[in-house]
Each structure stands twice: as structure tokens, then as C-alpha cells.
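Students often ask what a holo structure prediction actually looks like on paper. The answer is less mysterious than it sounds. You provide the chain, you provide the ligand, and the output is a string of C-alpha cells encoding the 3D arrangement of the protein together with flavin-adenine dinucleotide.
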Amino acid sequence: MPERVTVIGGGPAGSLAALAALDAGAPVQIFEKSRLPRHKVCGEFLSPEAGPLFARFGLLPGFLELRPARVTEARIRLGRTTKSWRLKHPAFGISRYALDRWLLDQAIARGAELIPEPAGGMHERTVVAHGRRGCAPKGSRLFGFKAHFAGVPNDRIELLFAPGLYIGINRIEGGVINVCGLVAESLFKSFGFDPEKLTGAHFAGEMPAGERVLDWLITGPLVHGPAFEQTDGPLTYRAGDALGFIDPFTGSGMLDAMCTGALAGRAAAFGSAPSAYARDCRRMLANQYRAAAVLRKSIANGMAGLLAPFVPGRALFQVTRPSI
Ligand SMILES: Cc1cc2nc3c(=O)[nH]c(=O)nc-3n(C[C@H](O)[C@H](O)[C@H](O)COP(=O)(O)OP(=O)(O)OC[C@H]3O[C@@H](n4cnc5c(N)ncnc54)[C@H](O)[C@@H]3O)c2cc1C
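The corresponding C-alpha cells follow.
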């Protein structure tokens, strides 16, 4: 029987790691320092590929019972250019409040032991899924923010860009609308770190008309980029944001987290070489990270707005997905 796997963090990466390790026959312990459910800064746009991934673990019917919103269209506004297209497969709008608790419950129901406290020290066969780490110099940092609104929902994810700032707007379960954004520190500071004032000044006509039903949440600082090398310990496997943080405009962070989590859980259960696991992650994520970095730079220097009319929306969407 495979040896016990310890998972640090019960977010999407940690829960999928636990499920994959349990599938491989290993006993699993999950350390989670927060009490779930809890709200979390996130666009709450779950990429369509999550459906087949859940199906692989026998989770799709249960997930659909959460009544996620179906997202069938995308609209991007970059400078004066607006681009809309239908998604090839519907994506999901689901709150982190519902999704994270539900995923963790699935792992517990299949036999994972939850230790509701921060992990202390490293264990043999550990999946590190504790989310983002990393720092940037003060002044050049990025911050994320989000809130939920009542309003007239549609089936669209909208991404609106302004210099130093973007927001995503989409529906989640219960007809609620999520507004989530990313902003450069200097710009945020000029609005007193107040998302209401910031979004009011830049996107007044685009914000949901209904009342705000969740206080603004803020997170940061955020640092983009992958860290595919595994340096923590002999049988330690980093997954999710602990492995790399993809630009939120891709709407792919949760998918990446669950895919790498599933790989990591299996690798830990079988005691595979962390270097082989890292190679698999690189194969899955490297192109996507490259594409996201090119897009980020071309958005910042204005090229993206000029080129957008000539690039099919579906192609843009595809290059910012992991290779799975
Ligand atoms: C502004 C913004 C918008 C985003 N929008 C989207 C989007 O629309 N779609 C999308 O797919 N992705 C989006 N993302 C990315 C997405 O939120 C992350 O990629 C995803 O949360 C990563 O999951 P994870 O499990 O790796 O980490 P997390 O979700 O961060 O989970 C880590 C867990 O570990 C726990 N933990 C931390 N330290 C310890 C410890 N020492 N011991 C025990 N537990 C610990 C934490 O409490 C947490 O529950 C967005 C991110 C940001 C910042």
C-alpha cells in the first residue's frame, strides 16, 4: 500500500491532490489553516476543461448540483477595441465560497483526514498547495480585489482593460454577479486603495446596476510567474499557485491548480521523483505561461489593442489554457 501523503492547503490544488492520492490507494492528511467556507478574491470563472477533470474523478454530477452559472460568451475591451466571441465549450461561474468547501468535502468523504490548522514542518511525501507566495518591491506591486453584486445576469465573461488595471465581470451561482480586478499599486494608492472609487472612475458605465451584496475583498501583493523547480525536500511536490501564478486575465488559475494538484497527489502517492513531476508540470504549463506573458506585455504597451481585431478570440482563449 502506498505511504501516507500530506497535503498542505485545502484549496483547489490541495483537494485535487488529496483525491488523486486517495485514488492511488494512499492515506491522506490535509492541513488547512482557514475555516472553510470563506470568500476569496477570484474572478470565479472556471475554465470549461474543469468539467472533464471533475468527470475523471466521478465529481461532475455533484459539481453540477452546486448550480454553477454557464458562461457561453466572452467579451474583451482593450482601449477602443471590443472583441466578442462564443466559447467553444461553456465555462462555469462558481463562487470560491461554494467550490472550495465542496471540493474539500469530496476529499474528506473519500477518506482524507482534515487537520484544521497550519502545517508545521515538512513531512515525507508532501504536496505543497498553500497558494501564492512571493514578494515584489514596494511600489511595483499588484493587488486583486472583488465583490458580489445583485443585477441582471447574462451568460458572458467580460474583461475590461484600462492602463494599470483590469476587471472581469461574470455571473456565478444564484444569479449573483462577481466583479474582480487586478490593479497596479500606484494606481490603487491614488484611489486610497478603495475598489469602489477605482472601478467607479474607470468603469462606471460597465459595473452591475444592482446593489453590492459582499464587502470588497482585497489581496496582494501578487507576483506572476512559474517556479517549476521543486526545491523543498526529497519527496515534495508543489502544486497550484505554490508552483506558479498565471495572469488572472486567463481565467485559468483554478484549472491549473486542479490539474497540477491531481498530478502531484499521484506522484506523491507513488513516491515518483519530484524532478519527473516538475517535467510533467513544465510540459503542461510552459506554453501557457509564455503566451500569458506575451499578452501581458502587449496589453501594457498598447499593441494588444491594435492587434486584437486580427486575432480570433477562440485562439486567444486556447493559447492561455494548459496543455492537457
Ligand atoms: C485577482 C485574481 C483573480 C483571479 N481570477 C481567477 C479566475 O477567474 N479563474 C481562475 O481559474 N483563477 C483565477 N484566479 C487564480 C486562482 O484564484 C488561483 O489560481 C487558485 O486559487 C489557486 O488554487 P490553490 O489551491 O493553488 O491555492 P489557494 O486557492 O490559494 O489555496 C491555498 C489554501 O492553502 C491554505 N494554506 C495556506 N498556507 C497554509 C499552511 N501553512 N498550512 C495549511 N494551509 C495553508 C489557504 O488557507 C488556502 O485555503 C485569480 C486570482 C486572482 C488573484
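The mean pLDDT is 93.
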